[in-house]
Amino acid sequence: MRSSLQLEAFKAQDAQPRLQDPEANPDGPGEEQSQKHHHRPPRLPHHQGIMLLATFKLCAGSSYRHVRNMKGLRHQAALAIGQELNRRAPGGPTPAAWINQVRSHGSLLGSQLEDTLYSDQELAYIQQGEEAMQRALGILSHQEGWKKESQQANGDEVLSKVIPDVGKVFRLEVVVDQPLERLYEELVEHMEAMGEWNPNVKEIKVLQKIGKDTVITHELAAEAAGNLVGPRDFVSVRCTKRRGSVCVLAGMATHYGEMPQQKGVIRAEHGPTCMVLHPLAGSPSKTKLTWLLNIDLKGWLPKTIINQVLSQTQVDFANHLRKRLQSRPALEARC
């Protein structure tokens, strides 16, 4: 059974015009743009395009041989310019266009960088978070091959699929009777409080915040399956993005020197994973939540136990999240 991910948010079609390098396309807009003149932003005059390209090269350090090896600074300059160009472009991408752009072109980095200069390590974490988002959305975009693991009376559904070079992944599809902002508030802004309402999580701690969208976290999971699955912990980089009415929370395992492996706890790993939130079509006060779960629990565990634990973890999460949202008054939140 195909999920509502077939909504426009996950159609692999980008109906919005893109800014193009004047050198890459000197003869004018491409076929896609020429077919959609009513959406096309005004084209820069030729002399302004040349000046813009020269300014880009100057700021990015590519015009001076002695700064060409300063990769971190060049990278940030280029991304900052890309961010400003996107900001000044008329209109903006639709949710479907943006998600397709994330998955296909990896252009989100520019929107993460502010005026702060980041270290090479911080840039690496930002890039890793972006990679996790692209890979996870790529998995969700392929609708074929999903098998139903469980169907709850309230409509909650867990599906699974075996991905080459990744393994078995699980997908939770639920509708929550709360607006998107409430879920964002609980899952992102109050992430460290998850241990208070989700029994499968003992603790989540933010180890480092990089810019406004990227964090490094340490998560300690509780025992599962009647203690057959002992305590696990995870060190992950997480990236959060919103475009229009679509909000994506993504992450994957990373290395963080200040959080070495803990004694008596198995260090498990999140593969590329994500949650996609968007208002339910026709009912904006409700939220459609899709959770792609991809975990390597490590250790010696039978696959049957692993599959049972992971699918049940998703079902439990949805139930506990609903109870949490119902028990706490709504606070103003913004993605």
TrEMBL record:
Alphabetical UniProt keywords = Lipid transport, Lipid-binding, Mitochondrion, Steroidogenesis, Transit peptide, Transport
Compartments, as annotated in UniProt = Mitochondrion
Q: Does the keyword Mitochondrion apply?
A: yes
Its pathway, per UniProt, is:
Steroid metabolism; cholesterol metabolism
Q: Name one GO molecular function term.
A: cholesterol binding
Enumerate the InterPro entries for this protein.
StAR (IPR029866), StAR-like (IPR000799), START-like_dom_sf (IPR023393), START_lipid-bd_dom (IPR002913)
Q: What is this protein called?
A: Steroidogenic acute regulatory protein, mitochondrial
Tell me where in this chain the START domain is found: 117-330
**What ranges does the record give for the region Disordered, renumbered to this chain?**
1-45
A GO cellular component entry from the record: mitochondrion
- Please name the Pfam families in this protein's record: START
Q: Which reaction does it catalyse?
A: cholesterol(in) = cholesterol(out)
Q: Which domain of life is it from?
A: Eukaryota
Subunit comment = May interact with TSPO.
Source gene?
STAR
The keyword Cytoplasm appears for this protein: no
Please explain the role this protein plays, according to its UniProt record.
Plays a key role in steroid hormone synthesis by enhancing the metabolism of cholesterol into pregnenolone. Mediates the transfer of cholesterol from the outer mitochondrial membrane to the inner mitochondrial membrane where it is cleaved to pregnenolone.
Q: Where is the composition biased (Basic residues)?
A: 36-45
Q: Which GO terms describe its biological process?
A: cholesterol metabolic process; intracellular cholesterol transport; regulation of steroid biosynthetic process; steroid biosynthetic process
